Protein: Penicillin-binding protein
Amino acid sequence: MDALRQLDHWPVGTAAAAVLRHDGGHDGEKASQVSQVGLSGDPEVPFRLASVSKTMSAYALLVAVEEGALALDDPAGPEGSTVAHLLAHVSGLAFASSRVLARPGTRRIYSNAGFDELGRHLEQVTDIPFATYLAEAVFVPLGMKAAALAGSPAFGVLATLADVTAFAAELLAPTLVSAATFERATSVAFPGLHGILPGFGAQNPNDWGLGFEIRGHKSPHWTAPANSPRTFGHFGRSGTFLWVDPEASVACVALTDRDFGEWAAAAWPVLSAGVLAELGVRADSGA
Structure:
């Protein structure tokens, strides 16, 4: 894929990227397929995912919901907060402490502390260490052979491009959770709330799903204007991102060894636009 040649000019030491497309199938075909349509870099080099980890940790929570170990409306975190509040960054918890800044459901406050609470909650109800549950619920069934959590569920995953691509394929065609659970997780939760999108400033509304950021109509943003408002995913402070555009049936992963900064805010939307253009997605329609 020509668009991925942009990585050769990024001011980073090491980078890897992949693009996937979901073919929904045609008449007479038994099943849809997810295929890799672009690759750049070594797929086996490990990277720190930083906050892209949240998408995988959230997915483990969704699997736990499917298994009946917990429910999204179970109390968790500050008084009045639930698992869903924590996943959607509306529990009221501060970014990195147990300080409560707002009543649950009233403000979108991006919170690593909220994901730490989720990890503790899952451990309490299952009696399984969160890292173990994440591996058994997500990494192993998806063949993410090198992926591992070392530290916080909010930012502690180390994984290769091959690993993250396997996860992206799951997000294009879910197999580990039901269609209803997946739809809820990747739709706007607690709509209409404003907040700060880290690295890109105040957004109103600051749409979020359950563990996944929803693009909506945010501007500026780390994806491209050609990405549909339904695009969901996450970027990481370590210089990583994963997005899935369900309207285009495309996913894009980029991993680097340079922390997020002005370089990334400028380069990532250009890459995303190039990927979508090369695949025939029109910026005016998202299809």
User: Anything to note?
Assistant: The CA atoms of residues 6 and 90 lie 36 Å apart.
